[in-house]
Fold this protein.
Amino acid sequence: MTERIIAIGDIHGYSVALAAILDAVQPRPLDTLVVLGDLIDRGPDSPGVIEQLMGLAHYCRLIPILGNHEEVFLQLLQGQYYLLDRWLAIGGQSTLAAYGCEFPDDIPLPHIEFLRTLMPWYETRAHFFVHASYDPGKKLPKQPADLLRWASLNDGLPGPHRSGKIAIVGHTAQRSGEILDVGYLACIDTCIYGGGWLTALDVTTGHVWQADQAGNMRPER
């Protein structure tokens, strides 16, 4: 049984779509699943997303990447309360409603602890994974946080990274529902929160799985 490296784009609280993707992918013990951040906010069931991802540790190697939504949430928990209105405006209200609580501190501790394990980046022999974008001239440990989590590809694509590795990113919603692939970079945020698709990509074979908000799989093309 060969190892697969599978990336999953921005989930944004759509647990039904995630469940459909995982059912189609059927994670195996040798697989590495990289989720590209923005697990929470906007969608109806952030708790269900976190529960599914926590459970994946029993079936494969899970690499969760830190998105800008998780960053703001964790900064709130660190006492930066001036960010509350900002978080609520970008989808935090949906997360609180899904948990049935009024304040971020009331979210169950196991879920908070899971979010604290999210990584700024991850790399393999041929690829690297970040939430948003990168500086092509800097090594991954030296990447600016604002680029990793906030930079939009709509403001300009970065060039090929100095490592020669292919970048797999999310964050910039592809409202067409299609992966943006420029050879040295692939963006797999296909706008599940806007009525598009949740996308999973086997970065070795190029196989793609997509599910909509209701969990319907997109026919393979």
Remarks:
- The longest helix spans residues 84-99.
- The chain has one domain: 5-211.
